[in-house]
Amino acid sequence: MHPFYGPSSQLFQEGESWWLGLASMAMYLLFWAVVIVIAVKMFKKYIVRMDYPKNRKDNAMSILRERYAKGEIDAEEFKRKKADLEETSGK
After folding, report:
1. Taking a C-beta distance cutoff of 8 angstroms, is the pair 85, 60 a contact?
2. Rounded distance, CA 67 to CA 85, Å?
3. How far apart are alpha carbons 49 and 81 in whole angstroms?
4. Within 13 Å, how many C-alpha atoms sit on residue 18's CB side?
5. Can you state the angle between helices 52-70 and 75-89, rounded to 10 degrees?
6. CA 91, CA 87: separation in Å to the nearest integer?
7. Residue 85: phi, psi to the nearest 5?
8. Please, are residues 41 and 33 in contact by the beta-carbon 8 Å criterion?
9. How far apart are CA 24 and CA 5, in angstroms?
């Protein structure tokens, strides 16, 4: 029988095998900690993309500002497009 999961008297017996139960428990904890850390990292990398729409809206607004700064569009067109972007984003 596994020394850690047996009766409590087996765990603290005088002898050489009592530490095997503690070492085994530490290995199980370490294994599951590594599995959980890897799962969380994969979840964050592949599943969670919550800020994607926000970045996209900001990207469109920054392009609009850049075009206005370069002089490609005038103030009237800038205001009209800015209002359109704010309207479509739900503000």
Report:
1. yes
2. 15
3. 27
4. 9
5. 170
6. 6
7. -65, -40
8. no
9. 10
C-alpha span between 80 and 22 (Å, rounded): 70
CA pair distance 69, 59, nearest whole angstrom: 15
> What are the pLDDT tens digits along the chain (91 aa)?
454 555 555 555 555 676 777 888 999 999 999 999 999 998 888 876 665 555 555 788 889 999 999 999 999 999 999 998 888 776 5
Contacts of 25 (CB under 8 A, 6+ apart): 4
- pTM comes to 0.41
Report the SS3 class of residue 44. helix
Separation of alpha carbons 69 and 27, rounded Å: 60
Q: Distance between CA 20 and CA 80 in Å, rounded?
A: 73
Question: Tokens 């704010």 identify what position?
Answer: 86
